[in-house]
Amino acid sequence: MAKKHTRMIYLKIALLVALLVAASTPVATVTSAVNKSSGLDVAGMDKAVNPGDDFFGYANGSWLKKTEIPSDRSSYGVFDMIAIEANKRTSDLIREASKASNDPEARKVGDYYEAFMDEKTIERKGLMPVNAELRQIAAIANKASLARILGSQMRADVDPLNNTNFYTDRLFGLWVSLDFNNPRRNVPYLLQGGLGLPDRDNYLGTEKDDLELQTKYREHIATVLKLAKITDADAKAARIYDLERKIAEAHVSRTDSADVHKANNPWRLREFSTKAPGMNWTSYFRAAGLSAQPVIMVWHPAGVKGISALVGNQPLSVWKEYLIFHAIDRASFLLPKAFADESFKFYGTTLNGVPKQRERWKRAVSSTSGALGDAVGKLYVRRYFPPEAKAALQAMVKNIIAAFGRRIDNLTWMSPTTRAKAKAKLDTLYVGVGYTDHWRNYNGLMIIRGDALGNAQRSELFDYQWSLSKLSKPADKTEWYITPQTVNALNLPIQNALNFPAAILEPPFFDKVADPVENYGSIGAIIGHEISHSFDDQGSQFDAAGRLLNWWTPQDLKHFQEAAERLAAQFDAYEPLPGIHVNGKLTLSENIADVAGLSAAYDGYRAAYNGKPAPDAEGFTGDQRFFIAYAQSWRGKQRPETLKLQLMTDGHAPDEFRADTVRNIDAWYQAFNVQPGRKLYLSPEARVRVW
Prior knowledge:
Elements: H1 2-5, H2 27-32, H3 55-66, E1 75-77, H4 78-97, H5 104-117, H6 119-125, H7 128-138, H8 143-152, E2 158-159, E3 164-165, E4 172-178, E5 186-192, H9 200-204, H10 208-227, H11 233-250, H12 254-257, H13 260-263, E6 266-268, H14 272-275, H15 281-288, E7 295-298, H16 301-313, H17 316-331, H18 337-352, H19 360-371, H20 373-384, H21 387-409, H22 416-427, E8 430-434, H23 452-469, E9 490-492, E10 497-501, H24 516-532, H25 554-572, H26 588-608, H27 622-632, E11 636-638, H28 640-649, H29 655-659, H30 666-672
């Protein structure tokens, strides 16, 4: 709800990805055509920068100097440019749906949007939409009823494989997906939660900035309580914050959370009371709709144990204060303006440095698209993604997969046994392009004009119940976790599957007037990136069927892990902010996929030109154009607050260093004559070659 569309919007679900229609062009056409209108932004470059010292600055320096981050954004770059256009399209579709009379699903889309935009009704209702929840909390009389309320609040909008949990302020989160050990069935995964700030380290940090954020969060808690006319707000805010800090101390770190082997913990329901005492688990699971499940996978055992102990040993009165605050805070984006403004002031400005809140219609579009994603997605693809586009994109992905397969065949260090398993995994990879083959329907979801918060709450509960329904259905590796109108993409190692939505096929990722070499450098590399996720430090732990199973020979696994460690160390050395380095371990999956994806895209580009470089254009050789296009696909800038938050919580390294991953590719050195002594120079033996 509120946190889904405000606080957590700054955490990307996965890497941006794009697809290339022109890749299906016959090789003869590719080799003979040189488009005079280059897809490169030459004016945005800074040729005064030596590419061997700062390739990101060389490719993007002038753009970085001239471009200001819009006042309603925490960052701005290629992703945002495409997303802005996609949002405009989505906005038009949603507004048109508000006038629909003969399409019940489209009418729900329109009614949700209109209710969000009805500020007069929202102001008139005041806190009335949350009063029922506040009365339930006030009626908590013992720890069993506390557990019942906590269980009823569980929601299922999480993806632990990508370190995202949109409902971090719920005590626990649920993820329903394939079983690590038996991918033919779905199981529930239980994840740690309970925090208002994005990460445990926000509470535990002792630097000046950390202490300032902690003070401002306590002030935010008190302000929300005061707006709700709750007495003794400052004292209650102190107790609420102290409880959250205790919860943070119980949490496992982001790095540990990314270790899937630490997440493979099947607990029977009867074991929870002995393994994690403190919570009345019978009441909790009954309220959460999970009491019939024989086994629950506990992703964070230490976190679950620590949080459960706090439920048992912390005063009931403090838990009630905590629940009251979060009930109001998470609803603030659809409460009267004073609440919405305070929510943005903290989660937008303080936490991410954004000075100006987005216009209401933009927020309404985001919320509507999130609540009724597939319904909006149907409208989107009907107008903007015809069947022939999907077919062309599927052909492009097929080409990149073939290139990756050739790389596997040519790995001199890999044994025949491991190679056969890797090829089997590649051969069974499901690639969803454009949109799902199985649209969700929204029958049973009640959307009412004039009930904005109620619509959002019912949508959350509807999503949760839909997730629970999967527990009684066969596993589906073709399931999508992302909507067509989303400018993003997703790799699902446990399903051995990829999702590439429709909305990404736009310049500058894909430019239909650009030469194929430049599209290979941008879109091709990103497609390769997503494919590579099936073989990164996490994806490589799952076999072709999606089982968490080692399919490597000991010697091959040792080689892979040594290469991964060297890449982690490479990124550990980067220092985006004074004294704050990139976490090479946290970002390792993405960094491996960047290196492997760029390598596969380069091979694909050369194959498209019959093994030769593309023709010169705009004063650059074909290989130079490929690498410049790659660096420009990572063009972007961030506010310092957002950058710091990313370094703490995100599995993606800052864009600058992702662009500089070219330093691991031999062809880049030849293209730009990068010699020893340059800042990015790596000796041949120091260059990381994972796949």
